[in-house]
Amino acid sequence: MSILMNDSTRVIVQGITGRIGSAQTHWMLEYGTRVVGGVTPGKGGTTVEGVPVFDSVLEAVKETGANASVFFVPAAFVLDAFLETIDAGVKLIVIVPEHIPVKDVLKMRSYAMEKGVFALGPTTPGILVPGMGKMGIMPASLFAPGRVGIISRSGTLSYEFAGILSETNVGQSTVVGMGADPVVLRNLADILELFENDKDTDAVIVVGEVGGEQEEKAAGFIARKMSKPVAAYIAGRYSPQGKKMGHAGAIVRGSAGTHAGKHEALRAAGVEVLESPIDVAKWAKKHKLK
Amino acid sequence: MRLHEYEALDIFEQNRIPVPRRELVSDMHDALHAAGEIGYPVIIKAQVLVGGRGLAGGIRTASNADELKEAADTLFNSEIKGMPVRKALVCQKVDIATELYLGMTVDGYSGKPVIVVSTEGGVLIEETAKTSPEKIAAIHIEPSFGYYPYQARSLLRMLGLEQKLITPWSEIIGQLYHIATRYEALIAEINPLVVLSNGALMAVDAVLEVDDSALSRIRFPLPDRVDRIENPLERRGREIGVTYVDLDGDIGLISSGAGLGMASMDIIGQKMKPANFLETGGGITADLLYRCMELIMMKPDLRGIFINVYGGINPIHEGAKGVIRYMQEHNVRIPVVAKALGNRQEETWEIFKSGGVHVVTEAATEKAVDVLYKLVGPGGKSGAGRAKTGAKRA
């Protein structure tokens, strides 16, 4: 029925007492998400939106049976809270905050991989399963239940693509924000693999953007392993040169994350490349997606 | 944040990486004095934060005072890729036997730092990667273990360099890794790393780009980052906390995310031309959007404004209040089109409408851009919109 979240997902909100944490807890509950607890060190024993707050992740997990966590923690404290969350045994973590130092993200990613934790972000809108629940900040009004998977590097563009599909009566199985930072906690190909193996997803849309080499790498995976139709849109055709960092990590392999380079790699893998977001409606119609 | 070459060279020197004798100057008189101290021949290098500085005429050699006068005069009265030259570095010209490349960055795909070396120094590593990838070697660093000297020795062997370089080579790589770690550098690069005629190694250029997200915790003196943005509108964007890129079209743009902003630019560019890129990130308030309107309206010849925002993390109803307050106070007469969807969207639409904003309630940005196009009509600028980097034109 979905990837990453299902009806046994029990969510805690870290940083629940903050301005954004409490507001987003309200929206997640309103959407039907099972938010079972929150964590803010020093605020244990209080409640937010009727949800009990704990001082530590371990306590929250023990008391509520939580198995997933969404972060609204200030960037400077994310690494510490992330390690605490993994040590408490949580296996799905969504990191919404932006501006987390890359050095911290490298440590987070390395530890998550070692412990078999699926983590998304930083700078992600999170996960939304239409009609079931959401971890993160996606605005519910744009989504509808259905059988198309969406993976997006940009938060706002994940809403845009879901919105266009929903208006044409094409629903989504799961919408995943992979995060917009130069280093993210999970690569695009890992999320594609989940959709490929999900019996309730018929096709996948990749919403990428210029920079890095996630799309180029994923193209290789798509060519080798994906049987379901994949469409892709890459934002930033007209992004001025020199306003983005040129990362040697991409450069070494002879590719610098350009719009044209991504289009070429995706097309070569059999992906239908969309020139403009609205073209996703035609693509969905052509494949008779629901 | 990218440091100037002179700042990076100072940091390299403090950390025992051999660098040339040099002096920072801001006019021709100082340049001549510096060269007198250093001794001819010298190289004078414009201190501007653009890539490909050498090819754009920003690096010149002088073997006597007359040549230096002419070179300095030309540099200080020119722009390098749109950037005025305010400072230049006068450097000792060293005897070079071979030019190598040494760079460190973060490989986003593997999630690890990577050390990249090449026997082709002094050219863009991107070009070497395309034309002769066999001249490049790279080693990834495990984040939990860090760098160890055997990795430098492996790189030396991989490139087939002479064994006698092993000590200075390992030391420089170790020190650059140390700097990259302490300064949380996303890029630390020496290009070229030269082998001198006496067999020693020296960094004759230095690139250091510090992770913006780590600036507040780096315990070493760093220059103010707002200061180094040449374009006054882009500087103002940084001050109010948004990303603003100055373009040469006539349609103002405000978006609530980077991806949406880029897509909006691409769609506007199909029939019209964006005057700017602006994305707010997750910090929208009424005041912020008031300031964003003020910022985009600093360009005098706008024909229309396109606002594209989602209420996920952002309170868009608050943002709408800021927009219409600006429009009322400044009697804005050009068409303003807003596509605003998400949490509290109906309330947001009412606020926008009450201020005379044309509201689009469908998700596709293309449809909203069409509405704007019908309002402003043809006849303006069209196309992609080129970046305006220089201070003069803004």
Structure description:
Chain A has helices at 19-30, 57-64, 78-87, 102-115, 155-167, 188-196, 214-225, 248-251, 259-268, 279-286, and strands at 11-14, 35-39, 47-48, 51-54, 68-71, 92-95, 118-120, 126-129, 133-136, 145-152, 172-177, 203-209, 230-235, 272-274. Chain A has 290 residues and is an alpha/beta fold. Chain A has two domains: 11-120, 3-Layer(aba) Sandwich (Rossmann fold), CATH 3.40.50; 139-286, Succinyl-CoA synthetase domains (Rossmann fold). In chain A, helix 5 links the parallel strand 10 (145-152) and strand 11. In chain A, helix 3 (78-87) packs parallel to helix 4 (102-115), helix 6 runs parallel beside helix 7 and helix 7 packs parallel to helix 9 (259-268). The relative contact order of chain A is 0.12. With 394 residues, chain B is of the alpha+beta class. Chain B folds into three domains: 21-92, ATP-grasp fold, A domain (Dna Ligase, domain 1), CATH 3.30.1490; 96-217, D-amino Acid Aminotransferase, Chain A, domain 1 (2-Layer Sandwich); 229-376, 3-Layer(aba) Sandwich (Rossmann fold), CATH 3.40.50. Chain B contains twelve helices and 18 strands. In chain B, the strands form five sheets. In chain B, strands 7, 8, 9, 10, 11 and 12 form a six-stranded antiparallel β-sheet that branches. Chain B is elongated. Chains A and B meet through helix 1, helix 4, helix 5 and helix 8 of A and strand 7, strand 8, helix 4, strand 10 and helix 8 of B.
Highlighted features:
heterodimer; A: 290 residues; alpha/beta; Rossmann fold; 2 domains; 7-stranded mixed β-sheet; 10 helices; 14 strands; 34% helix; B: 394 residues; alpha+beta; Dna Ligase, domain 1; D-amino Acid Aminotransferase, Chain A, domain 1; 6-stranded antiparallel β-sheet; 4-stranded antiparallel β-sheet; 12 helices; 18 strands; 24% strand
